[in-house]
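About this split. The held-out portion is used to measure sequence recovery: a designer receives only the structure tokens and must propose an amino acid at every position. Recovery is the fraction of positions where the proposal matches the reference. Here is one held-out target exactly as it appears in the evaluation file.
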């Protein structure tokens, strides 16, 4: 016997947390009956359906996508905009993005049908570094860079320490290029951190996720993760 949301995550329906929401909204049936209680336990002999579609254990898969700008990090979009799913038309497993990248942000995003993997990499208590490169307005001072390194307050809550590297300065255009490494995953965090030190982001790209990078990929391309990469990510997240 195991909890319903864990079975759903293991079966590739969604992450464990997203599966809980699916259960609570009445979209899940166990042996023909709608179940909304999160503590429900099921066995291998129980029939579980999500949106009237039976679930079965899928092979666990993991992909790295170089997301272009102008693409939604979601399985579907109500406004019919392009999503990360449009790059995987031949993948039969029910994959979804691990975390998210903003619509106008490009770069590395992971895709999987492994709910536990998703949970380990996105839960706030697990610290996995993500590195971004941003083109920003203005040229930051040493004091402003120090603020980013010690943490800035966003809506009254201080961010974790960031690593910074000022890559390029263009006094003529009054712009700079800065590299920022963080391990948190708040919405719009990098943009908000840079805005908090008076340097709004003009363009943003996530160039690495832990030890993974975009080397060898063009915008819109993807590759499967190797087994040792999956194992190493889980090790980083849980240790």
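Reference sequence for scoring:
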């Amino acid at each position: 016997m195991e909890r319903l949301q864990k079975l759903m995550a293991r079966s590739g329906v969604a992450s464990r947390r997203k599966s809980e929401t699916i259960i609570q909204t009445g979209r899940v049936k166990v042996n023909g009956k709608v179940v909304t209680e999160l503590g429900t336990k099921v066995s291998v002999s129980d029939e579980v359906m999500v949106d009237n579609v039976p679930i079965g254990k899928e092979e666990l898969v993991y992909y790295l996508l170089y997301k272009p700008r102008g693409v939604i990090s979601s399985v579907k979009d109500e406004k019919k905009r392009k999503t990360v799913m449009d790059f995987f038309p031949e993948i039969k497993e029910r994959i979804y993005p691990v975390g998210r990248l903003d619509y106008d942000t490009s770069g590395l995003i992971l895709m999987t049908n492994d709910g536990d993997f998703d949970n380990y990499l996105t839960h706030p208590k697990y610290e996995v570094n993500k590195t971004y490169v941003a083109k920003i307005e203005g040229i930051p001072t040493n004091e402003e860079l120090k603020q980013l390194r010690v943490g800035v307050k966003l809506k009254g809550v201080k961010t974790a320490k960031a690593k910074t590297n000022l890559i390029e300065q263009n006094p003529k255009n009054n712009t700079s290029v800065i590299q920022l490494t963080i391990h948190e995953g708040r919405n719009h965090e990098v943009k908000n951190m840079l805005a908090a030190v008076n340097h709004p982001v003009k363009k943003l790209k996530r160039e690495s996720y832990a030890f993974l990078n975009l080397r060898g990929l063009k915008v819109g391309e993807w590759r499967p993760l190797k087994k040792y990469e999956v194992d190493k990510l889980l090790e980083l997240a849980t240790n």
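Annotator remark: The chain has three domains: 2-54, 62-125+212-238, 130-209.
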